[in-house]
Amino acid sequence: MHLLQSEGLTRPTDARAGRRRKLLEALAELRCDAALVTHLANIRYLSGFTGSNGILLLSGRSATLFTDPRYDIQAHEECDCRVRIVRGSTWEGVWKHLAGRRLRVAMEADRVSHDVWMETARRLGREARLVASRGLVERLRRLKSPEEVEAIRASARVCGQAFLETARTLRPEMTERDAAAELDYRMRRLGADGPAFETIVAAGARAALPHARPGPERLGRGPVLIDMGANVGGWMSDMTRMVCLGRPAREFVRLFTAVREAQATALESVRAGVPARRVDAVARRTLKQRGLDRFFTHSTGHGVGLEIHEMPRLGAKSDDVLEASMVVTVEPGVYLAGTAGVRIEDTVLVTESGAEILTPVDKDLLVLSS
């Protein structure tokens, strides 16, 4: 059953014109006349274009997408802005278009090479000015509209259903790679465009690798960490659950209980107005009470949206403050080299009063008879 079709879900039609207006307001604060947007997720956010090659020029007069002939039909179908098809270098088309104009142009300095930056400055000429901008569109993307939240919620439902369907099929003789492939297959069958990232299935001691890649190792009897997310219409979800094939060892139960408690206390601290670093601190403090904080080796969470990692960052050095309508992950973990690893993760919506969990799967350790 196709989950999206079965629930009558309509893919969100983004209010792109409103997003572009907000970006123009941000440009005005920089005293810029136009912006060159090169990061593909930002281009999609502002124009709807989903291709692999594009540059968006935004000014108060118009929005123009420059791309190559491969995307002629697609760009005209997807975009609600002007489309210019460039034969040869896409940048060459942009440079020719801007040549001789007296403009202050903002460009994503952290998204282009030094060579492209220098050539753009040269081709704009002395009458123009190139201004470095970093995170301008990404800051707009932090706050999700109700339609965007519903899109992420749909992604989380697909992710959760695929997990539940696949969990019933897991056997000790299966490999990590086969289990990951089954998860990806079921997400697609339920309506996903694909996984949000490379699905992680890590059995036994390999779960101590936070970014383990599924390999030929068999699941065996014991704990398995599954970290997965769905890409539904370009919107991502992220969830980690623990499964155990057979009866879990007492030490593993101790670790799992500690991480479960750390995630619960961290979730309780999530609400609008809370510094992101506080959520991280709460999770670490809970693990410290169990003597496990030194085995928590990554930040507690990150934003989720059109990309699997977005602003804000829920880490010890983060300067972000949570705001209502942000969507973030909360994912403490404990990793004991050569022994075991445990992580529990949810995608959540930040509200004025707390955190609304979007990933709909129970977090108890799922014990399967082996």
Describe the structure.
- The protein is α+β, with helices and mostly antiparallel strands.
- The protein has 2 domains: 16-141, Creatine Amidinohydrolase, Chain A, domain 1; 146-368, Creatine Amidinohydrolase (Alpha-Beta Complex), CATH 3.90.230.10.
- Helices cover 34% and strands 23% of the residues.
- It is built from 11 helices and 20 strands.
- The protein has helices spanning 3-6, 16-29, 40-47, 72-78, 90-98, 114-124, 136-141, 146-167, 176-189, 250-268, 276-288; strands spanning 34-37, 55-59, 63-67, 82-85, 104-108, 129-133, 194-195, 200-203, 222-228, 230-232, 235-236, 239-245, 301-303, 310-314, 327-330, 333-336, 340-343, 346-350, 355-357, 366-368.
- The strands form 6 sheets. A 6-stranded mixed beta sheet has the order 4-3-2-1-5-6, sandwiched between helices.
- A hairpin with a 3-residue loop joins β2 (55-59) and β3.
- α8 packs across α9 (176-189).
- The relative contact order is 0.12.
